[in-house]
Amino acid sequence: MSHSPTHRRLPGTLQFLLTTFLVVWLVMAAVPFLWTLWGSFKVEGDFFSKADWTNALTGELTIAETGGAFTGQGYYGAWVQEEFWRAVMNSAIVCFFVVTISLTCSTLAGYALSRSTYNYAFWLLIAALIFRAMPPITLVSGYLLPFFEWNLWGHLSTTIIVLVAINQPFSLWMMTSFFRNIPKDLDESAMVDGCNRFQAFRHVILPVMWPGVITTGLFSFLLAYNDFAVTALLLDKENQTMIPKIASFLGTTQTKGNVMFAVAAVISATAPLFVLIMFFQRQIVSGLTAGAVKG
Amino acid sequence: MKHGTFLTFVAPSLLAMILLIVFPVVSVIIQSFHAQHEQVIEMVESCGPFGCSETATINQEATEALREAEPLGRFVGFDNYVNRGHLAFAELGEAWRSSDTWGEWWTKVMNLPFYSAIVFTLTFTFIVTPLTIALGFAIAVAVNASVQKIRGPLIFISLLPFIINPIVGSLVLFWMVDARGILGQLIQWIAADPDLSVKASTPMMWIMLMVYGIWHSAPFAFVVFYAGLQTINQDTNEAAMIDGANRWQRVRYVTIPHIMPLVTFVALIQLMDNFRVFEPLISFSAEAHAQSLSTYILSDLTGETVLYNSAAATSMLTVICVGILLFPVLVRTWRDFKRA
Amino acid sequence: MTKFTKLMGATALSVVGATAAFADGHGCAAEGRLSIIGNEFPAIQSVAAKALECSGIEGESNLTADHQSLNVPGMTGDPAEYTTAIVANSSIVALMNEDVIQPLDALVAEYGADIPDHMKISVNGEIMAIAFMANAQHLVYREDILEQAGLDVPTSYEEVLAAAEAIRSQGILDNPLGGAYAAGWNLAQEFNNMYLGHGGEFFEPGTAKVAINNEQGVATLEMMKALSEYMNPDFLTHDSNATSAEWEAGNVALMNMWGSRTGVLMDDEGSAEEVYSNTKVSGPLMVGDSGVPATTLWWDGWTVAKNISDEDAAATFQAMAHGVSSGLLNDETMGQAVWLIDGFEPQEVNEGVLATVAAGAKPYPMVPFQGLLHTALGNELSDFMQGNESAEQALADVEAAYTAAAIEAGFVTE
Fold first, then answer.
1. In CATH, which of 1.10.3720.10, 3.40.630.30, 3.20.20.70, 1.10.287.1700 is domain A84-292?
2. Quick one: which of B24, B285, C261, C320 has the most CB atoms within 10 Å?
3. Interface residue C233 vs chain A (CB under 8 A)
4. Contact status of B152 with chain A (Cβ, < 8 Å)
5. Nearest 5°: phi and psi at C267?
6. Interface chains of chain C (3 or more CB pairs under 8 Å)
7. CA of A173, closest CA in chain B: separation in Å?
């Protein structure tokens, strides 16, 4: 790493320490992914290499079983045989709606919370935060009976609404602190000019809120994408999302799963996140910079 | 803002939270004060492919009447909270009376499932949270000090541990630290002990869970702090430099005060999330070595016979603990709110 | 078990006739709804697929590892979401406790003439489920390693210990024993096996009061501890999946394993030739001098929900009866399980389970509060296995944990 203009005066030893530290961290962050990616093209015996760990590199059993050092069996099994693409579609639907609905609700509510000076606004925020502490497994097992009773169980739409609700406290908190950093004068002067609250929101706030919305949206997306507790229990086998599907590849105490399908599916499920982060990393940072975390 | 307008704005959000969080929480509270009806047990003959035998069963007609009378079950007050599975007051008292030394008393307390779960949960929370913040801050500083051109890829790689699904991420790590896995072999080589197994020792398992916890959340702290570093007022920094402040003093008196509100934010989120630690314990099959409050609830909810009341009581205790943990942060937020 | 043993002898003779008779397939037609909830292993998939074949029904299935969390809530509503749940002798009690399944006597009389008596699970004279497959844990061993060490196939845990010592001291394998000792359900199951093998009783007769803190309980834990000395040091994280993986890697010579798993161990996938071709099964292991094998017998079967219309119940019954009729058995499904269905031809992999039945092993207790004890054992025994507390203390902890849970669930009054 060479010297950047603003840090021209960074002393050599410090620079060296920082660089070493960064390299160590990058290795720690990336190696598990690379390892899994590499292993996903092997057979189970090599991936776990219980006999000798170097097998995972050389692929001894993979060669013995498939003839080549790499095999696409895991991917074939997951995508073709087990129809992983269905889970991908379901995940896409769930994520899209969770993000959209969640952002709509939390943007409106977050704006109101940031502009209200009454105490109840504060208590609402705190109550939301405390409720967030309730372990999701307890909530979900409480949903089961009424959902079955009212015939709501097993639909993607129910799951979406549940994820939106569970996600609200965090989104609210982020959006509220984001709006607090947009000066009140902006919308208040618009209201002096004769706009009502909604018009002020639409014309003045809407155009400047996007960095915060994108950042909050990404967090909602990650929550919906990675959820297991809710989706595993509220969705039918037919409309499972990716994470429960991967878990089902892993098997249970009663069945041996096809672990390599799971490994291949893990890589497949992580790939879209890579793309997403690559596209949005600047927005995440600028969104956070723009205020969501200014306190 | 007017009450009516406020209500209109928050209505959708509020509605979702009332229906799907508040109502269930109220039901959890009610459940936690109830227990199941007395079951009327009778001995009957049951037969199957392996022959017949005398077994116990529930007399449904007799139990039905009790169920009709009180659909929620027996009201038991705080019994669920103080029984052996939770706060275990009777057992604590007994341990106190029968122990001669603190060590003996502590062993007896740790033998109670709720206390051993809460000790792990608190240890995890209070070790992982500060280390996450420290590591996140260090990465943010290091990335911020690097050349503009390579910052993109650096941020990207640094965010990876955060975006991966926690169950999957911890499972991959669990596979790697197996005594014959690549990391397990590395650890054995470093420790010069060919029989060392992370999965066989409680302290190693705890360390591994915490390392995973830090690895997973450090990127979150990093990205927040990195964003914060972008907004440091360069004038203040330059002014400090002109005043002869050295690098360390500038970090101490300019950067850290600027970052402080962010530390509060990250600490708040991390305290809550770490207190609910769940996925890594499942993926690491850590049950023998570590139990958190969340996995303790899971074990009540997934047996052949579901103990919903017990799970409700543990959940309420979890919420109360989180409330206590967050209290200082809440007080701070209240002050900020009043100031604004 | 006599009926079942007789059946095993009988089927060997009547195989040809039976398959011929059913080869053209039963017609199955019924009007109504069929909705199956059950576990996801291959044998259940086959049964569900067969049942859904039935013409005229409106059918669906949800076969998932989470079935136990879903079946009770899913059958509690009126009408129930699921018209049938596939359960085992351990999990049927949850459905009976909550009173969500109906007695099948009338349906059997009307539509179930073909169902042999040994498939009927009856409680207090009422048929509550139709069992279709059996399972049990039994010894699996490596023929080549026993030969190399000059040992006979062990028949008791005492002999297993001696064999393990011999294999280790000859330097053949470091950790010659395997076992699903993962803390939680698996560890508790191993306790149950060993405790029954010592001739223990779990409860005071006629009550839900637990009684395991006794001589047999201590002997059980000591035997488990002694065995664990010869296992991979990670044994408390090894469920049956991980134990099977150890086996396939060739690191283990003897283990007590589920009959349903042996097929995977004996096929040529996932392990070296010397491992799979030398993998052999034998009967259950004995322990002490009680004469009861240290294992349990299991069945899987289907039930019919209570809160559904008579029409749906009839349709569900007919479809499920079709699902477990002799027509189910073909080359592919034959090896998936030890079927209780007429026409089943035992395969080599099934010998262990059949030997276990023949040896007079006890079934896993179908008792309303057994699940609570199982959970308590799973949570409390790992401290002892790690050497952190005495056997008596561990058993006292189990009893205390069970009692707290049983009071809450209403089985025990203080």
1. 1.10.3720.10
2. C320
3. no
4. yes
5. -85, 170
6. A, B
7. 10
Q: Which fold has domain C137-294+365-409?
A: D-Maltodextrin-Binding Protein; domain 2 (3.40.190)
Q: Which residues of A fall within a CB distance of 8 Å from B260?
A: 295
**Cβ–Cβ of B39/C411 closer than 8 Å?**
yes
CATH code for the structural domain at C2-135+297-358: 3.40.190.10
Determine whether the interchain pair C234/B178 forms a contact, defined as Cβ–Cβ distance below 8 Å.
yes
**Which of A230, A254, A263 would you mutate first to test chain C, the one with the most C CBs within 10 A?**
A254
pLDDT at C16: 38
Q: Where in chain A is the domain with CATH 1.10.3720.10?
A: 84-292
ipTM computed for the complex: 0.91
pLDDT for residue A57: 82
**Residue of A27, A48, A98, A138 to mutate when probing chain B, most B C-beta within 10 A:** A138
Closest residue on chain A to B247 (Cα): A10
Output the 3-class SS for chain B. CCHHHHHHHHHHHHHHHHHHHHHHHHHHHHHHCEECCCCCEEEEEEEECCEEEEEEEECHHHHHHHHHHCCCCEECCCHHHHCCCCCCHHHHHHHHHHCCCHHHHHHHHHCCHHHHHHHHHHHHHHHHHHHHHHHHHHHHHHHHCCCHHHHHHHHHHHHHHHHCCHHHHHHHHHHHCCCCCHHHHHHHHHHCCCCCCHHHCHHHHHHHHHHHHHHHHHHHHHHHHHHHHHCCCHHHHHHHHHCCCCHHHHHHHHHHHHHHHHHHHHHHHHHHHHHCCCHHHHHCCHHHCCCCHHHHHHHHHCCCCCCHHHHHHHHHHHHHHHHHHHHHHHHHHHHHHHHC
Q: What residue numbers bound the domain in which B96 lies?
A: 78-104
Among partner residues B36, B43, B305, which is closest to C94 by beta-carbon distance?
B305
**Does residue A16 belong to the interface with chain B, where contact is any CB pair within 8 Å?**
no
Q: Inspect the interface and report whether the beta carbons of C64 and A257 lie closer than 8 Å.
A: no
Whether residue B5 is predicted with pLDDT greater than 50 in this model: the reply is yes
Its sign, for the CA torsion B132, B133, B139, B142, is: negative
- The shortest C-alpha distance from C56 to chain B (Å) reads 31
Q: Does B245 touch chain A (CB under 8 A)?
A: no
Condensed to tens digits (0 to 9), the pLDDT of residues A37-71 reads: 999 998 887 888 776 778 888 888 788 878 888 88
Which of B9, B211, B315 to substitute to test the interface with A, most A CBs within 10 Å?
A: B9
Q: Which residue of B has its CA nearest to A180?
A: B340
Q: What is the CATH number of the domain that holds B132?
A: 1.10.3720.10
Do both B172 and B304 map to the same domain? yes
Q: Which residues of chain A have pLDDT under 70?
A: 1-10, 51, 252-257, 290-295
Per-residue tens of pLDDT for chain C, all 414 residues: 444 544 454 444 443 333 333 433 457 888 999 999 999 888 999 999 999 999 999 999 999 888 998 999 999 988 999 999 999 999 999 999 999 999 999 999 999 999 999 999 999 999 999 999 999 999 999 999 999 999 999 999 999 999 999 999 999 999 999 999 999 999 999 999 999 999 999 999 889 999 999 999 999 999 999 999 999 999 999 999 889 989 988 999 999 999 988 888 988 877 888 999 999 999 999 999 999 999 999 999 999 999 999 999 999 999 999 999 999 999 889 888 899 999 999 888 889 999 999 999 999 999 999 999 999 999 999 999 999 999 999 999 999 999 999 999 999 987
Residue C116 CA to its chain's centroid (Å): 21
Which of A44, A144, A233 lies nearest to residue C270, judging by beta carbons? A44
Q: Which of B247, B269, B276 sits opposite A135 (nearest CB)?
A: B276
